Amino acid sequence: MALYKFAALPDVEALKAPLAAFCCARAIKGTLILAPEGINGTVAGTPEAIDALADYLFAHGPFGDRLAGAEVKYSFADSAPFLRMKVRVKPEIVTLRAPQVDPNRQVGTYVEPEDWNGLIERNDVVLVDTRNDYEVGLGTFQRALDPKTANFTEFKDYVARHLDPARDKKVAMFCTGGIRCEKASSYLLSQGFEEVFHLKGGILKYLEVIPETQSRFSGECFVFDERVSVGHGLEPGHASLCRACRHPLTENDRQHEDYHEGISCPYCKADKAKHEAAAERQRQMELARQRGHAHMGDAAGSDAERRRREKKARAEQSRQANKA
């Protein structure tokens, strides 16, 4: 379940621990970000656990009805896409650092996925991808401008340098799930842009409901979990992550001479410190595999606990044998 909602949550500190306990008690994993302006995150668990969490967040939990109407998307994975559960409190649920922006007060015009193609094919519409450069590199909409930002806070500088409210009368924007565009569209309106549009539900909703034969999206959409990317129908994509720098990699990237599985890639080829750490991690993973043990996350913790129990049982058997 991926969700976000801009809502007044002045009691985020009090909400954090109960929410984390609720999720952990049901083996839900992922990340939820709480801030005074709302909630954002993606989590995974059994269908029953996710249904229970939805009820807790949107109906019968301590949030009351403050999260009613949240943007929520459901999808399925063959294996757990997250290793642990984290609930974090931050100043913003998506960081822009623009105090004048308030999506609860003003945002751009929402455009349903079914109407998106018609809008972005118009010659009088400037189409902007609000995501970061590494996300755009995996896939984007045809004709979209790439701000080439390393993080969302740089989007303000891009607007100042490349967009002009006197010239760009109609601006359409999109992002992964819709949340960044809530702030981006609110920011453009605060800067004097008159007509601002954004894709409701983001790329993920578009890929879910628009047939591939009608799609204007090329490539795959980066997602912030172990799937790395998804394609049309939200099917898992073909991208992977560099374990040294966490940059998403295409098949062409993995054919590059600077790519070494688990150790380095073309995007971090000069960072020797990252390579050494990644090489040691890769070595530990290989040793774990040779021994038939898990290496990461809860699986590794469970594996270690199993080995401790087995060792304790053998010691107890030895002790009993010695007594006999």
From TrEMBL:
<comment type="similarity">
    <text>Belongs to the TrhO family.</text>
</comment>
<feature type="region of interest" description="Disordered">
    <location>
        <begin position="276"/>
        <end position="324"/>
    </location>
</feature>
<dbReference type="GO" id="GO:0016705">
    <property type="term" value="F:oxidoreductase activity, acting on paired donors, with incorporation or reduction of molecular oxygen"/>
</dbReference>
<dbReference type="InterPro" id="IPR040503">
    <property type="entry name" value="TRHO_N"/>
</dbReference>
<feature type="compositionally biased region" description="Basic and acidic residues">
    <location>
        <begin position="303"/>
        <end position="317"/>
    </location>
</feature>
<feature type="compositionally biased region" description="Basic and acidic residues">
    <location>
        <begin position="276"/>
        <end position="289"/>
    </location>
</feature>
<dbReference type="GO" id="GO:0006400">
    <property type="term" value="P:tRNA modification"/>
</dbReference>
<keyword id="KW-0560">Oxidoreductase</keyword>
<dbReference type="InterPro" id="IPR036873">
    <property type="entry name" value="Rhodanese-like_dom_sf"/>
</dbReference>
<dbReference type="InterPro" id="IPR001763">
    <property type="entry name" value="Rhodanese-like_dom"/>
</dbReference>
<comment type="function">
    <text>Catalyzes oxygen-dependent 5-hydroxyuridine (ho5U) modification at position 34 in tRNAs.</text>
</comment>
<feature type="domain" description="Rhodanese">
    <location>
        <begin position="121"/>
        <end position="215"/>
    </location>
</feature>
<dbReference type="Pfam" id="PF00581">
    <property type="entry name" value="Rhodanese"/>
</dbReference>
<dbReference type="InterPro" id="IPR020936">
    <property type="entry name" value="TrhO"/>
</dbReference>
<protein>
    <recommendedName>
        <fullName>tRNA uridine(34) hydroxylase</fullName>
        <ecNumber>1.14.-.-</ecNumber>
    </recommendedName>
</protein>
<dbReference type="Pfam" id="PF17773">
    <property type="entry name" value="UPF0176_N"/>
</dbReference>
<keyword id="KW-0819">tRNA processing</keyword>
